[in-house]
Specification:
Protein name: Phage tail assembly chaperone protein, TAC
Distance between the termini: 42 Å
InterPro entries: GTA_rcc01693 (IPR011739), Phage_TAC_6 (IPR019056)
Order of helices and strands: HHHH
Number of domains: 1
Pfam families: Phage_TAC_6 (PF09550)
Helix content: 55-70%
Radius of gyration: 20 Å
Shape: elongated
Low-confidence stretches: none
Length: 65
């Protein structure tokens, strides 16, 4: 977690007191910030993962020797 960015957002944008910020759980913080930043991205599905794996395959290198 990017605590400095979260602190800037919580204290600056949400105008929270430091005490209120540190008493929140990460889940509560995300819920409070959602109206400003929107919901997080949906998790990637199996088909999307397979498409990415096909597009960007892992490349293995043979050991020098």
């Amino acid at each position: 977690m990017d605590w400095p960015a979260m602190m800037r957002f919580g204290l600056g944008v949400l105008r929270m007191t430091p005490r209120d910020f540190w008493e929140m759980t990460p889940r509560e913080f995300l819920a409070a910030s959602e109206p400003y930043v929107g919901e997080g991205a949906a998790p990637m599905g199996r088909a999307e993962l397979e498409a990415l794996r096909a597009r960007f395959p892992d490349v293995t290198r043979e050991a020098d020797g």
